[in-house]
Amino acid sequence: MPYSSVDVAERPRKRKATPIQYVRVAGRLVLPVIALFLSLAVAFLLHDIPVSDSALPILSWFDHLPKDAQLAWDPRWWPLTWAHLLLPLSFFVIHLTNRAYGPEYALGQVLVTWTLIATAALWILEALGPAFTGSPIPPRQTTLAFLSGIVFGELVAIFIFDRTRGTRWWTAPLNGSLFGALFYTLIFYGLSLGLIGEPWLPRVCLDFALNAVGALALLAPYYLMRPLIKPLPGFGGK
Hints:
Distance between the termini: 40 Å
Number of helices: 10
Number of strands: 0
Mean pLDDT: 87
Number of domains: 1
Helix content: 55-70%
Radius of gyration: 21 Å
Low-confidence stretches: 1-12
Order of helices and strands: HHHHHHHHHH
Largest sheet: none
Shape: globular
């Protein structure tokens, strides 16, 4: 049945955002953006520092593999660095934002953070140029593959987290991290190694396994932070 003129007039209209609302949104994004920026910055600074057997004793298990199998499956040949172990933190901080404010804020967190990272990188290269003596910069193909993988993985994590909110507190963060890590590893290694004919599926399996372990470990701090970071009205989950 069509609306009458009275019905149409009485239907609520979407209000335009006020300057105060924009300020409130920006204020809510400050800490999430800082947290994501720092987690990614630390991972970058440690991307060329290998993980030793003493720090991760399970790596010595790969010594029992045949030599040919070691070349394909032993992550020490990558080499495995601290950045691989710290990367799940980026999904973790995005989950906290998604939990508290919803997917729109989490998306804003990702976009603003990567804009700041790109701006900072361009400024450093422009200002310091050849004098830049910080951590070695990865090759261009590796950098582009990483950016494509991690940004898409973070977007997938936002979507999965929001879609799997429910009565069990661990469902959304665990699923978000697992699916985000899966897409990240597939895209990153597919573009950085697969396109040049290098074996990349073993790295996908191993790196995804590391991210899965990280996702499980980060459920503990997520659980402890739940009373401090509560969802806004309208968002499900505990």
